[in-house]
Amino acid sequence: MRIFDPHIHMTSRTTDDYEAMYAAGVRAVVEPSFWLGQPRTSVDSFTDYFDALLGWEPYRAAQFGIQHRCTVALNPKEANDPRCTGVLDVLPRYLAKDRVVAVGEIGYDSMTPEEDEALARQLQLAVEHDLPVLVHTPHRDKAVGTRRTLDVVRESGIPPERVLVDHLNELTVAMVADSGCWMGFSIYPDTKMSEDRMVRILQEHGTERKLVNSAADWGRSDPLKTRKTANAMLAAGFDDDTVDQVMWRNPVAFYGQSGRLDLEDIKADDTALFEGNSIKRGGE
Ligand SMILES: [Zn+2]
């Protein structure tokens, strides 16, 4: 099985995670730039971070057999901090880089006027740079936030097939499906979405334009949730080809719209030793 995790923050993860992900079948990841927990106090902190996403992290990933790409943006939370908004002026320089496969993650956190401004401006940057966008939906007031996000996306004029709306659940999947945007689902250890709920969404709404990610970061999260969801799909009767569509071909198709995703060819039968929810290492 081959897996592409389309949303994971590897900067916050260990080399043990990279090893376990490889053993579980993960061969490619996209790391969106995001909020680091500790507030940044200057634009320079962003550029150092973007440079790490473009240089150091792909190097680290490659040591474990995993191909790494990123997305860059001013995240929704820091869009509210005047010390950070200057990053919008340096983004064009980063959006020109080969390893950047989308603008993201952008969107709403608290739905303030400052967030409106940053979202609209970055959707425009995506159009100008001919890149897809990764849009985060807020964890509070999710249905309201998602609806408003879709309105802003529509007004921006960006084609919906170039937009991935992430962190969806049972309440928001239908409105995003109707919009023509791609649908992302983040599977977490104990809150929000689980692998069983994900399987039910795929049964009810189909597998077209759907992406599954772990969104693993510095909080309690699990970088193997992609594989665990794939296992849950198989247990529920989905066949290997459908699992491959959701876990590999869909994210490749979405980020491939950047024109920059020339991954080394990975075959679906390049399988890893992984049974149930624990990793079996060779020789044991
Ligand atoms: Zn994220």
UniProtKB/TrEMBL annotation:
Residues spanning the membrane: none
Protein keywords: Hydrolase, Metal-binding
Pfam families found in the cross-reference section: TatD_DNase
Classification via InterPro entries: Metal_Hydrolase, TatD-like, UCP005295
Domain of life: Bacteria
GO MF annotation terms: hydrolase activity
Gene3D superfamilies in the record: Metal-dependent hydrolases (3.20.20.140)
Family of the protein in this entry: Belongs to the metallo-dependent hydrolases superfamily.
Protein's name according to its UniProt entry: TatD family hydrolase
Native source organism of the sequence: Streptomyces coacervatus
